[in-house]
Amino acid sequence: MMGFNKLPEECVSTILSLSTPRDACRAAAACSALLSAATSDFVWESFLPNDYNEILSRADQSLVGKVGSKKELFFMLCSSLPIDAGNKIFMLERSKGLKSYILSARELKIAWANDPMYWSWKYVAFSRFSETAELRTTSWLEIQGKIKTKWLSPNTTYAAYLIFKTSARAYGLDTMPMEASVQVGNDPVCRSAVQLHQDAGPKHQIERLLYGNRIEMLSSRVVQGPTTSVSVTPSARDGGWMEIELGKFYSGKPCDRDDHEDDREVKMSLMEIKGHHLKGGLVVEGLEIRPI
């Protein structure tokens, strides 16, 4: 039987184009006879999203102008590409080439974000964006991000994560659980109670002492409903940032740019509007949508 490395290069390229980026890299490393096919533009263009030219048009051209091969382009996109004047970041997942996005705080709908009494905008060290939003004080916290399913990889399960940290002056953020939710089109997909988990020091203990009964009553309202999961907690990211999962959703089948029927809007939210207590010190970098 003919060995794989004895096949014509065009056949090998076609086979590899139906695999994954990881498989193509393994093939190139395993056999020098496969190197040319495994690194060809034909193979690596098949791993790029169909709309990669449109995505590149939204980036700073000085960042993409020197890219040579399609393989180089693929791995450049895996390293994060700022788009839309730096207000979003586009990424590809290395093993399968699935799309991810990070929406900056400026791309989010934040209640009273432009009122300096409630929020301030500034650069924070180790942020990927030029501005982050820091909560000064409010009794009504509502943060929402949106993305169209057509911009995501089809037939893929995604999760949405709020990227944040808390300042030294943070207060009131854990007085009661916050409500996270994801909605696709008009369909609520999931709803959960989340805890940002400030340091449980004397200040937190005093809040629990003063408002303990009220906190328990209001917390019970947050976690009601058939699509609810309870006690979501944050995880650490690089640069001192944290992330909290807002929920998961399925991107659905592929749709054309002009196919509005299958192109649905995903709304991802974090809110705390039931406690009516003041809170502050939340620093929001953005919202990441990535495959799981």
TrEMBL record:
Residues 4-46 form the F-box domain. It comes from the Eukaryota. InterPro entries: F-box-like_dom_sf (IPR036047), F-box_dom (IPR001810), PP2-like (IPR025886). Pfam families: F-box-like, PP2. This is F-box domain-containing protein. It comes from Opuntia streptacantha.
